Amino acid sequence: MKLSAETLDILRNFVGINQDILIRQGNVINTISQQGNLYAEATVSETFPVEFGVYKLKRFLDAMALIDNPDLDFQAQKVDMKGDKNSISFTYAAPSIITAPNQRLNIPAADLSFDVDASDLSRVLK
Q1: How far, in whole angstroms, is CA 55 from its chain's centroid?
Q2: Rounded to two decimals, what is the model's pTM?
Q3: What b/e readout covers 28-39, taking b as 16+ CB neighbours within 10 angstroms?
């Protein structure tokens, strides 16, 4: 399995919320901050075949970056990241040491929605 650039960007953003992540089987990934006050969820194009914990998500992403176009082979206790010339095995963390949401949150629909482009936001912030 290969991870899309969009999924990698989502995971990089999740590092800013929590250094750990528990990715459950399926195509929805979510995270919650250590304090429980920030929650993020994304539906991705990939379907993860197993549940796995990553203790240091940044290290996981850094390991993937060492391999050109890595192919991920998810197994029971680890994921093998394979490239043309090299490979890395990354052992999963126990779910008990990961701060993860117990379930998906039902967030109500927004009462108000608007779009602000980058130049307008920059002017407002100045």
Answers
A1: 12
A2: 0.79
A3: ebbbbeeeeeee
